[in-house]
Amino acid sequence: MATMFMIFVSVFLAELGDKTQIATLLFATDSKVSPVQIFLASAGALVVASAIAVLAGTFAKTYLQQIPLKLISGICFILIGLWTIYSYYKG
User: Fold this and answer.
1) 36-59 exposure pattern, b = at least 16 Cβ within 10 A, e = fewer
2) pLDDT single digits (tens) 5-31
3) What distance lies between CA 13 and its chain's CA centroid?
4) What is the pTM for the complete model shown?
């Protein structure tokens, strides 16, 4: 249960304020579309994207065991963060 909570919190925090949430917010401003439809469509999209990520991770774990995947993904997150900071200050 602690693992599931950690995964939930990590994904929840990662999703806050990202492009997906902003797009969903913008769809919700359209009075022609039901909020329930928007919720179901955006939740479904997140479920499918997460399923693809889990499948890719399972594939990577199975076929790339010699490569330290956690290290690589950590470095990628750092690089994305640095790129985001650079883009912010670049204008």
Assistant:
1) eebeeebeeeeeeeeeeeeeeeee
2) 888 888 888 877 778 888 898 999 988
3) 9
4) 0.62
Which two three-digit tokens encode residue 84?
């985001």
Q: Tell me: the pLDDT tens digits for 37-88?
A: 999 999 999 999 999 999 988 888 777 776 777 788 889 989 999 999 998 8
Q: Give the total residue count for the chain.
A: 91
Show Cβ contacts of residue 20 under 8 Å, excluding neighbours closer than 6 positions. 42, 45, 46
Neighbours of 82 (CB within 10 A): 10
* Spatial contact of 28 and 41, defined as CB atoms under 8 Å apart: no
How far apart are alpha carbons 82 and 69 in whole angstroms? 20
Structure tokens at 80: 């994305």
